[in-house]
Protein 1
Amino acid sequence: MARVCLSLGSNLGPRETYLRKALQALDKELGSLVKCSSFYETLPWGFSSDSLFLNAAACFDTLLSPEEVLAVTQQIEKSLGRKEKSRQGQYADRCIDIDILLYDDKVMQTPDMILPHPHMAERMFVLEPLAEIMPHMLHPQLRKTILQLKEELAERSERRS
């Protein structure tokens, strides 16, 4: 059994409905939901949009491999109406986005997936919900807890403003 942590987000349509439907499908397809964070309203990251995101983090216990988890998350995105991950390499508004953040302490890189997620330590919309449910989980490469990463990012953001 592996522990997989995901980030979920939506900034189009009935955002909360999309997140709840994704969580239900993940619970059915991946394995048992261990914990889900509160929903956080956040600004878009990496692109401009007038639509705010609703974000959450969720952790599941699964028997699936990382590749199988990726296939499940992509199928759920499609079933909820997601048509593309990005447009010509640029982020865009989306009804649902599901990213794999951590899969136990696995470190891997394939053409389709990088674990742990390469940008998670740069994104407060990822760290804040994940720290709510798994504050003491260790990032396998950075060797810091999710709470430490969140606090460090908050400090860096404060210094910039």
Protein 2
Amino acid sequence: MRKIIITLVMLLTAFPADAQTVTREQYRERVLGYSQQLAISREHVTSAEAAIKAAQVGFKPKVDAAADFNYMVKRINLELGTYGIPMKHETWGLNATAAQNVYAGGAVRKQVEAARIGAEQAGYGVMQTEDNVIYAAELSYWSMATAIAYRDAAYRYLSIIEDTYEIVNNRFEDGLISRNDLLMVQTRLQEARLRVSDAETGYTQALIAMNTLMGMPVDKPVAIADSINTALPPLPEILSLEEALEARPDYMIAKSNVRLGEQQLKLTRSRYLPSLAVGFTGQYATKSINIDGKGVGNGIAFAQLRVPIFNWNERKHKSAIDKSAIRISEEELSAAADEIARQMNDAYTRMTASYNDIETARGSVEVAQQSLSLNTFSYNEGLLTILDVLSAQLSWLSAYNNLIATNYNCRQAIADYMLATGRL
């Protein structure tokens, strides 16, 4: 009867009545939909696209308008020989200027190209954030599955100990065994209850983490569709380093940083090339000597040519700064490739080892289960002591928990390898 009760408790706590079952793919989508980090990354893309349009404005003519008004507190006269002509207190003017860059050393074109590289990097930033969010969701999902499995194991262990306690207590009351045997089982019973309490705490913490990632109330019950002990997917195929590098957004960002540095160098050099701008200024204003207060219209067409001649090697020094930045970006790109190669090999090594460990862990559970059954039968026949039974029970729990941990480690190693190869 006690086994039935404990089984019902396990089922009710694992799948509460109001719990919503989510699959791994559904959980990923919910986390992606809620992620603030992903929303921020997408805003960076919007900002980068606006930066391209802002840079392209440099190709277009600019029109500016201005107005001015002056008032002389003391009125003065324009002296003309023996008499003077009074001047107006106020002078004013309206003017509008239209100007067009004809040539600026290619600066505008290079600014546009730099802005496009920035937008490209923002796109890679979204991809990188998506990978990180999916990775966090993957670990959270399997952490929840692990917490459920640990809790189930704790309840099963408690059920086993309680059954043993019933048998030992009945034998003690019949005077067949000493009180020492009963005390040993009582001690294990209290330990089993503590394990259940710890497992419930671990489950609650996993639930809080899972709900937080997808923006749900932290105490909302969630049932997941997968068990940590379900069959593993086939071992992922091996990718070459070159394939992984092209799929990794962080590497592509590092690669574009080199291009961005080269573009910055070109932009710096363009500022020391000749530039030419043409335009027209229209004006409607009072005369410089304002006697009648009337406005006069006029217009000026202009061409502005600027030729840098001597700047104390400023161009050379600033170019050296940009060249140094390019070399730094190239070293960072090389370091990124090395780090990705390390991540790939490390994750693949752990993943293949975990797949092998799974079989060993499953075999240990089977042996521990058989040992427990055999020891329990032998104790009932009076062939073994209670200490042998308790030891077998603890070995079973250890083997089962080790299987759970090995399964989780394997799931994490798979996620690490998929992240390292850019395939999450």
